[in-house]
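Continuing the batch. This is chain 6 of the set; chains 1 through 5 are on the previous pages. Same settings as before, nothing changed between runs. Recording input and output for traceability.
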Amino acid sequence: MTLTKAQIIEEIMNKNGLSKTKSVEAVETLMEIIKKTLESGEDVLISGFGKFCVKAKKERKGRNPATGEDLMLAPRKVVTFKCSGILRNRVDSA
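Output for chain 6:
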C-alpha cells in the first residue's frame, strides 16, 4: 500500500496533537522547501533518511515504442533519491 500525503497529515495530527490545519501547513511548507531547493539545482539531504539529487541527462537516442521510429530525446534534468544507510538497514530488517 502506498502512503499518501493525506495519511502523512493524519499521522502528524495524531502523533503531535496538532490541528488538521497546522498539520497540512507543516507538510505543505516542507514540500515547498524541497521543491524550491531542487528547482534551483541543489541537493536535499535529510539525515537518517536520504538525499534527493538533481542530475542532468544528456541528449540520447530513443525509440517510439508505438511506431518503432528512432528519435533523439532532448537533454533534461531528473531527480534521484539515495536512501541513507540507517534507512536501508531499517527497511532490510523489516
